[in-house]
């Protein structure tokens, strides 16, 4: 009885503890597909300015976030979605200062510092941010591809992962493995299964990858739906894990206050292709049929301006392809003999051969192994009644005796 009471008490205690931790735990936001903006606020003499109000505004969605500089004059906005931002700093006794067009890429920690000028808040200084020449907040080695690059660079099958092969330490698969259309690559000398595919911060790895020419990823959005992606080959952060080769980190476009979208159609048709003159005689054989259409559209915009947005895409592929064949059909002799007599097919093989019973056969005769038997010189074969010319073994061809395959 005491044991039962103890078990009930343990179960109730565990449930209560679990419910407590679920209620008081704070959500942890992933930074895999995000970036950040950090900086400091000082006056013209270089002294830190604490208590200044810093406002971060997304220029595409008008979403604003506020922060206050700490005692050491620093501020931080992280994690934030990739995009274009405006920073405003204001404090009584100083002119308001604004930095426009601060671009935040995947996994980028942008440095934005301010030097305030004494004056009234009605006065303001406008600064247009420029891209940093060197990313000093992150030691990772990688290559970033923007939406413009993804759409403008040629891609086989419109597969954006092929652009990963432009990064440092990355190479395509060996040609000995056949034609690869998946975009799989080797990074830092490690096989494709050591790469880590991430889409919008979510694991996008195919753990049952075909090692010959299958894709190592699960979901492949069209290039028009990709905002940007980054390939990191070394020194990437611990939040990625898993990868020993490279991390391919892609983000999907999102809706903004402006309606935007695209539509596409990519066509291949045998009417536009040249005939294969080497293997095909155009006078007797028509070109093989090929109809390949890859089409789709993407669109995004506001549902409620400055509050709710939507973005979606569709990509479809239709392939109708014919292949030229030169088939062979069984002859009447093959069919009637139960596919045991191939004399008419092998007649083109020249030459003959003679066995120990003095029988002559075409050189390409097929013998029945079930009729194998020994013969002795000058002795009469019990099957054919023919005397043997030497010691050894003989067999009968399928079409003259032995077991018949029906």
Quick summary of this structure?
With 406 residues, the protein is mainly beta.
Q: Percentage of helical residues? A: under 10%
Shape: elongated
List the secondary-structure elements in sequence, H or E: HEEEEEEEEEEHEEEEEEEEEHEEEE
Overall strand count: 23
**What percent of residues are in strands?**
25-35%
Main sheet: strands, sense, barrel: 5 strands, mixed
How confident overall, as mean pLDDT?
A: 80
Quaternary structure state of the chains depicted: single chain
* Poorly predicted runs of 5 or more residues: 1-12, 23-29, 401-406
Q: Which structural class do the helices and strands define?
A: mainly beta
- Annotation field: number of helices: 3
Spatial extent as radius of gyration: 38 Å
Distance between the termini: 77 Å
Walk across the major sheet and give the strand order: 3-2-5-6-9
